[in-house]
Amino acid sequence: MVPRRILHVDMDAFYASVEQRDRPELRGRPVAVGGSPASRGVVAAASYEARAFGVRSAIPMSRAVRLCPHLVIVRPDFQKYRDVSQRVFALYREVTPLVEPLSLDEAYLDVTENAWGERLGVAVARRLKREIRERTGLTASAGVAPNKFLAKIASAWRKPDGRTVIAPERVPSFLETLPVDALWGVGPVTAKRLRERGIDRLVDVRRMEAAALRAAVGGLADWLRELADGRDDRPVEPNRASKSSSSECTYASDLTDLDRIREEVDVMARENAAWLVSRGLVARTVTIKVRYADFSTITRSHSHGPTNDADAIARRAVVLLEKTDAGRRAVRLLGAGVHGLLDASAWQNGRLPFE
Amino acid sequence: MELVVRKSDLLKELSLLQGIVERKNTIPILANVLLEAGPDAVSLLATDLDVGLRSRCEATVTKPGTVTLPAKKLFEIVSALPDTDVRLTEDKGGKSVTIAADRFESRMQTLPPSEFPTPPDDAGADAASLAGGTLKRMIAYTRFAITSEDTRYFLNGAQLVLDASSMSMVATDGHRLAFVRMEAESGVSGKMEVLLPRKTLNEIARLLDGEDAVQFSQGENHVFFRAGGRLLISRKIDANFPAYERVIPKTNDKRIEFDRDRLAAAVRRVRLLSNERSKAVKFVIGKDQVEITSSTPDLGEAHEVLPVDYGGETLQICFNADYVDNFLAVVDTENVSLEFKDEMSQAVVKPVGAEGYDYTYVIMPMRI
Description:
The complex is a heterodimer. By secondary structure, chain A is of the alpha+beta class. Chain A is 37% helix and 24% strand. Chain A has helices at residues 14-22, 48-51, 61-67, 78-95, 121-136, 148-155, 171-177, 188-196, 210-217, 221-228, 258-279, 310-320, 344-348; strands at residues 6-11, 31-34, 43-46, 72-74, 99-103, 106-110, 140-145, 163-165, 244-255, 281-292, 297-307, 331-343. The relative contact order of chain A is 0.10. Chain B is an alpha+beta fold. Chain B has 6 helices and 25 strands. The termini of chain B are far apart. Chain A binds chain B through residues 280, 343-345, 347-354, and chain B through 172, 174-177, 242-244, 246-247, 275, 277-280, 320, 323, 344, 346, 362, 364-368.
């Protein structure tokens, strides 16, 4: 079989770069996009200037400010990011229909066959990066490899504005150097467990007994073993179906008023309903998440006939609060989500009442 | 084995056998067709383990014997031959067969006939005699309603029901149901019900030509259709078909007649602006008219008014355009009727003035 040419393209510090592009006064300064530190906001994206101070996405903004006192905090404007993202994805789809979005700023492309007629993945990557810069004024990093897992690692190799190629013949030597925690899906906990067993590099996994590996990393074992041999046959899936949607919010001060808690859950449930409608889906299961002031977290869910009706989803989410101590105990975070998704069209074709 | 056969005779049988052989096979021998040369004919057999077809064609056999050859390649080669006699000769050692006609000669690898699975025979089974044309029509009237996605096994086929004076066939995908019943003297006593896989129905329909009778019989796990010297053997679906009588509504109190062609054309035009996924078209039913409408938020909307004779309650029913199309494409009466109760309950479409048969198509309206 001809080796595939897979690209992983990742926009550099996407939200922060968009803000720096649109507001020249932010250029060259440490910028974090996200919520306010006073209201327990988190960092959604950090510019490279901010990253130099250790500011990165998903850390609390309050900590980011401690790390970098001159940090400029910018409120996110998701509509703007979505617009830019759409332009970038439109470009990707000019090159190949096999585009799998991972988020607004990240995608896999299978360019084995491509509309530009380029034979080399690296040539596609070079042209894509140039086009992205011309059309959006932003930079991206690209990884080129024979499969998704290597392409993703490659794109992170040199950032920002990087381009890394792992040619098929270089895969074995590349794997030799790869630490276990470079892998998506291997978090710090798993990495620590592997290190305790003498596994520092991905290739060390090959030496490990199957049972021992399973004991250390559970269901990840088979997957890791495949990757250790550089194998990853997952196709680039342009229409990968979403499996769920959820919203959550951490509150500036803990909530104790049950009416307020209900209202918050109601609003989030409606956001999920709107998301379902926009994607032509219905959901069978509604879930809520409650984190109490002591950080203990519970989820409750309810499955019933599929729907994307905002009132119905909100009602079900609010009723689920009765199965929690929300109100009796102070609440720090609330979330609502939907899963068990079905194509609305299939569901809309009513069922004949056989039973 | 060594024989000579007319190209056109062999091609006809090979083309019927193509439908049986699956494109993707995990068992290599199933990609082959079994040829058995007897005294004055060669018999052919293909099977996918669920459905098999036995046929024969006259041949001048100089050396009887049995071989297997790749069904698709053999068909392609024979199709390409000039219209003359074809000579099939098993080569020394029995590893290959030479196929020759005129100045052309080819040699193809064989697989051992001993590996070829033998389907059961219909010997001794009770036979009913069915009118071929009737059966073919019943298949055409129902097979589009067989589900293409439902994983429920029993829905992956159509139910054939025979009794002393009628035969009927019914299929459903859970959203719509097609039922057809025809007067027929099949010669069975009592009632016989069997669930036939989609592929079997398609292959029987291909075999049937004109009104010639089909001999139908069943064994424990298989059914047999004998028609025009060919025998189709099919596994039965081992499941109970749902109680379909229950979903055919009895209390639909409103009725509208349409000119079939005008309705079909209107739906075909209006659906162009229906949602690509849901394919919904709405029937807005008012006094003496039905307006068929569609819309897609980012695209636009379409509507067409059909004058009808109706004085009942005004209401709107939404249907999947495919479901309506499928029915209108197979009925051949000038008019069709729509019977309904409200927006939510099963609607029934029927050909008006159907003679000698009852055709009932039940559609569950879409939720809007």
